[in-house]
Amino acid sequence: ASGTPVITTHGAPWEELNTHKCGAWIPIGANYLADTIKAFLQYDECQLEEMGHNGRKLVEEKYKHKIITIPNLLSFFRLLLIPVIVWLYVGKRDPLWACILLVLSGVTDIIDGIIARKCQMVSDFGKAFDPVADKLTQIAMLFCLVTRFKWMLLPLCVMVVKELTAGILGLVVIRKTGNVDGAVWHGKATT
Are 31 and 63 in contact (CB under 8 A)? Predict the structure, then answer.
């Protein structure tokens, strides 16, 4: 989507490259590839920019409503880590391994955001699912801390009330506008 046409062969499931005018879906063969590259080298900068715009639009349309994407799978992986982290901290009393998995969870959170934006895999589902995985991880961690430090019950209760309120208001906004907005910097800062 940066002004470089995409070329792939008929073995790949991307025939829409031709119909969306963002690249070429060509038969397998060196001659077809060479001819296509020669043709693209004749394009001027405006034509290449338009192809890049068309490619970005295609990817956004293709992934906006997708559920199974790499970023969403990473968010799901973070959800699967939650019971393991709680078990390690509370059941096994192994805060070191719980911390290691918590750091892994944080790293996958960063990576899924990078992949979603860089590869244009941002989806409405992901915009809602990723913050849920974040909040459930945070609540689980506060729960773990409450098992050792009773005074952590207050921050846990405050967070649960805050997140329930934000979640309900978010659903109202989605219902009224039909838009699913992604996280913003001030929301991430309060986390």
Answer: no
Query: Residue 67 in contact with residue 125, Cβ under 8 Å?
Result: yes
**Dist CA 2 CA 162 (whole Å):** 41
CB 72 within 8 A of CB 125: yes
Q: Both ends of the chain: CA-CA distance in Å?
A: 32
Six token digits for residue 142: 């506060």
DSSP 3-state helix, strand, coil percentages of the chain (rounded to 5)?
75, 5, 20
**SS3 for 164-185, per residue?**
HHHHHHHHHHHHHHCCCCCCCH
Provide the whole-model pTM.
Answer: 0.61
The pLDDT tens digits for 65-85 are: 778 889 999 999 999 999 999
Rounded to whole angstroms, how far apart are CA atoms 126 and 120? 12
pLDDT of 138-183, one tens digit each? 889 989 999 999 998 898 889 889 888 887 887 788 778 776 666 6
Burial class (CB in 10 A: 0-12, 13-18, 19+), 179: exposed
| DSSP 8-state assignment for residue 91 | I
Find tokens 């944080």 and name the residue: 106
| Distances in whole angstroms, Cα of residue 115 to Cα of each of 54, 72, 79, 111 | 20, 10, 18, 6
| Cα(75)–Cα(132) distance, integer angstroms | 9
